[in-house]
Amino acid sequence: MAPRIGPMGEELQMPDKDAKAMMGTEDTPGGKASPNPQNLRPSVFHSIKFFVLCHSLLQLAQLMISGYLKSSISTVEKRFGLSSQTSGLLAAFNEVGNTALIVFVSYFGSRVHRPRLIGCGAILVTLAGILMTVPHFISEPYRYDHTSPDMSQDFEASLCLPSNKALSSASSNSSCSSYTEARHLAVVGIMFTAQTLLGVGGVPIQPFGISYIDDFSHNSNSPLYLGILFAVTMMGPGMAYGLGSLMLRLYVDIDRMPEGGINLTSKDPRWVGAWWLGFLISAGAVALAAIPYFFFPKEMPKEKQELRFRRKGLEVSDLPVSKGEDSSSEQSPADSPEKKDNLAQIAPDLTVIQFIKVFPRVLLRTLRHPIFLLVVLSQVCMSSMVAGMATFLPKFLERQFSITASYANLLIGCLTIPLAIVGIVVGGILVKRLRLGPLHCGTLCLLGALCCLILSTPLFFMGCSSHQVAGISHQPGAQPGLELFPGCMESCSCPSDDFNPVCDSSTRVEYITPCHAGCTSRVVQEVPDKSQVLYTNCSCVAGGGPVPAGSCDSACSHLVLPFMILVSLGAALASVTHTPSFMLILRGVKKEDKTLAVGIQFMLMRVLAWMPSPVIHGSAIDTTCVYWAQSCGRRAVCRYYDHDLLRNRFIGLQFFFKTGSLACFALILAILRQQDKEERTKATKPNPGLQQQLLASEAKKEPEESRV
């Protein structure tokens, strides 16, 4: 009589009975049908393929909510007066909570209900995304100039006024001081808290998901499933940049627009987009993706190919298989000491405190494995490159090629991310179709890293120097003074902390404000679909103007597409190494150590790459700034960079990390070749024990032949 399927809790204790249920009539010994076949029909939540689909969507949504901050990092800097170093720390702060708890992933391993824990983490990620929007609602409306509230924004702002009017205007600007330093710190503190919760919620998602897929999928299908998972996951950052491109076209205070509207366009350097709106959309996507995880079982049967193999083994041995065991996990008694020393085997008998005490020893033992250590170091270098580029590439494109934040995100979302997805898929297909072993996986990783490094070299030369800005010397740290500006504006009493740039298109000279250009009047010229602000009677401009508002266009804007094509091709080649490098770890450690190895891997990647890399890149960008300016009482924001120095430092850091990854893969390949050579030598070397057995058998045959 077929066993009765009880509640989910009982069903999870009998995975082999579930396996027999999945076999159906033809897989039942003797070919007899089950009395109640409708009760034995497997649920969709017992399919590892459906889990791969759900987990791909969840990781897509999770990376979309974490990648959205990177797509709007320059906008957040302008809105709240953050330096690139601070914004880089903010972008990396979600790794703090993640790293602090990643150790417990190794402790729990397969003891816990992994799908449900993943769902709980996703709910926490949703709450963190909602918390990220709170600074917008508790902050005052954004003011892009120093006018008082009773004046229409941008009216007579930054004009060359007589001394008495300038003083009265400066006194009226004191209303901006209501945005106090305490409010600034409170807003930044909320964002850091939200990033921490985002990291805590993401702790169980990827390690538990990868180990769950690899445990219950067929061995030959695992590389393909992981390749699909990584490929779909990579769509998350792409969708984040696409969402950022759409949201940043909207004004930041779209929910509380001032009367009469605004006179800014998205090309104006003072423009701030609706950075907060994307977090609400992303948080909703994560909440929807978290629902199915509360219905997946703690353990599910292996795929059908594996079940048939196990069934044949059971028919031969007629031995019951206990929970969690399969034919591949059986070991001889000689292996018992090794199993006893394994942390994954003794972890269920340890308390949390005992686990924390024993974890450093097990960590050191795991890191002694040369292949594991070098693969992790190579992924650390590659992740450092990716973290820096994902965080500051939009800002780099904005500054280097004078494009809008929306267009920069569109380029990244439409070029870089799709090609990276193609690279991941190609890597997974190559591993599965060609059945690449460790040696060939190492070769594939080395070739991908080498080609990526070669494509990075031309990026050093794709750019141009900064355009001329009146009164600013292009030396990092130099501050403009009145003596540096032309004498034509000395009588204007221009504010030193104002920023409203205008461009003299005839000479391609930019002025920080119309006041610094000596302009005394302003007109609005109506053109189709928009209005253009022009400043006239400018004493520093030949003919008195007019000069349009906004910064001068870059002379290298035509190079942005070739630059992005090279960056995208390099990302695709680097992504080819993703799946093979993971397979080097998953196939290099024992099955019971997979969760531990993946947990250590992600912990080291976060500590050594995702946490410090954005801060390092942000600090390097800050040191290329040549002019810091305040905005309405906020902290100073960098307005102008030395383009040559910015390009050399940003691309140089990328080049450095790619070189480190290439060196690690070269060492891995050398070790794998040495191991392969030793195995071949052992295979061809004669076995003395086998020779003695053959001689003994021949000696026994000789007396028998003599008798005959």
Automatic annotation (TrEMBL):
Location in the cell: Cell membrane
Protein name: Solute carrier organic anion transporter family member
GO molecular function annotation: bile acid transmembrane transporter activity; prostaglandin transmembrane transporter activity; sodium-independent organic anion transmembrane transporter activity
Keywords attached to this entry: Cell membrane, Disulfide bond, Ion transport, Membrane, Transmembrane, Transmembrane helix, Transport
Major subcellular location class: membrane
Family named by the database record: Belongs to the organo anion transporter (TC 2.A.60) family.
SUPFAM superfamilies cross-referenced by the UniProt entry: MFS general substrate transporter
GO cellular component, one term: basolateral plasma membrane
NCBIfam families: oat
Kazal-like domain location: 482-542
Record gene name: SLCO2B1
InterPro entries associated with the record: Kazal_dom, MFS_trans_sf, OATP
Keyword Transmembrane among record annotations: yes
Natural source organism: Capra hircus (Goat)
Source species, domain of life: Eukaryota
UniProt xrefs under Gene3D superfamilies: MFS general substrate transporter like domains
